[in-house]
Amino acid sequence: xxxxxxxxxxxxxxxxxxxxxxxxxxxxxxxxxxxxxxxxxxxxxxxxxxxxxxxxxxxxxxxxxxxxxxxxxxxxxxxxxxxxxxxxxxxxxxxxxxxxxxxxxxxxxxxxxxxxxxxxxxxxxxxxxxxxxxxxxxxxxxxxxxxxxxxxxxxxxxxxxxxxxxxxxxxxxxxxxxxxxxxxxxxxxxxxxxxxxxxxxxxxxxxxxxxxxxxxxxxxxxxxxxxxxxxxxxxxxxxxxxxxxxxxxxxxxxxxxxxxxxxxxxxxxxxxxxxxxxxxxxxxxxxxxxxxxxxxxxxxxxxxxxxxxxxxxxxxxxxxxxxxxxxxxxxxxxxxxxxxxxxxxxxxxxxxxxxxxxxxxxxxxxxxxxxxxxxxxxxxxxxxxxxxxxxxxxxxxxxxxxxxxxxxxxxxxxxxxxxxxxxxxxxxxxxxxxxxxxxxxxxxxxxxxxxxxxxxxxxxxxxxxxxxxxxxxxxxxxxxxxxxxxxxxxxx
Length: 492
Fold this sequence. Notes:
Layout: E1 2-8, E2 12-19, E3 24-31, E4 43-44, H1 46-61, E5 69-76, E6 82-84, E7 94-95, H2 103-122, H3 131-141, H4 143-148, E8 151-153, H5 155-164, E9 168-170, H6 171-174, E10 180-181, E11 186-187, H7 189-195, E12 204-206, E13 211-214, H8 217-223, E14 230-232, E15 235-236, H9 237-244, E16 253-257, E17 261-267, E18 279-282, E19 288-294, H10 298-308, H11 314-318, E20 332-334, E21 352-354, H12 362-386, E22 394-397, H13 404-414, E23 418-421, H14 427-438, H15 445-452, E24 455-459, H16 463-491
Parallel strand pairs: 1-5, 5-14, 5-15, 9-12, 16-22, 22-23
Antiparallel strand pairs: 1-2, 2-3, 4-7, 6-8, 10-11, 13-14, 16-17, 17-19, 18-19, 20-21, 23-24
Helix pairs in contact: 1-5, 2-3, 9-14, 10-12, 12-13
């Protein structure tokens, strides 16, 4: 049998058809718009997601034997607020993970309810992108819409509902809502009360590789597949990517360079960073993970290349940067173009270049962008190290992982080997693997990952470059504290 993995991203949906040996038979990508109604706001129409998924699956299966499709699952952008009325119609556009309108609500949760209480209830504190602050924002600013809410959902779970008619979510995605008791894998009644919603308004919780239902007959007929095709709950995009990169079990690491950037460390045991600089979430493998998230990663490089210097020749721009340049650049870049989450939790932070002189060249600026993202990831890595977590190597995924230069920079900034994989499908591949487990092709998620994920190349750090980057990183980490108050001033 073959399995469909759907990666519902921020700018597009990526869909793969994969066999049980891990071979990608076909893949499709469909884009959809993002709306920015006000500065710092970010919204999408869930109907656009559904249309893109259906059209994408039709294209994916064109010329294929549809009868071989055994299951479907998802990886999806996390934290987005989708609200449905009693007729299961979308009430308002989804408020996305990178939306920064909830400053007031986050301050209320963190300062009035208190970080200690939030951490006790959910293992996390409030960040602007999380779902609970968005619910409070709707309650305070759109009371008519709040009164209509019958179901609260996350982006990928809305697609699962459309396919099956089941209001569902999985433990990994639910962990990012600030409504979920991560340790006990259930809704937090205290947080539901704080937000003024009930458990009846929340979707049913599943493990990521559990079957939530089968494809509704009318949709199965439209796609040409059987109505017995199972749908697995899936996972948040980072947990799905971790499955797709083999980052399961205990002490494994994956770095994703997508629109946002994440460092993801899997663990068999539940644990919380006492400063809550890292997120403590349930993992798609049935266990747990710690995760640091920076809001701009490959998107920062895309901004620099597309909007500032006006080129799509990413490889050409990077080809001018040599090993001798690494760690010897005097330009620094803070990649906080959408504010920052881990570890600063500062929605007012902004992108900056520092250190330019009259001899600064275009390639120095390009290099600074790549290094700035790597240093921001290292900020999260240092928190993990402070907790006694020992990471021996990391795997890479996301669009940025296609740049071997960027992977080399990452290896030397972190001082650990970076493993590149045969398949770079990330969340979509992980989603297909979750569907396979749900269908009984593999006994568990770890078995599927061990069987299907293959390393094609390892980039090892160079001691001389590590030494140069150590000095540069220590200078980089001085910049944000020095201008933190300036960010708040200019945003006023």
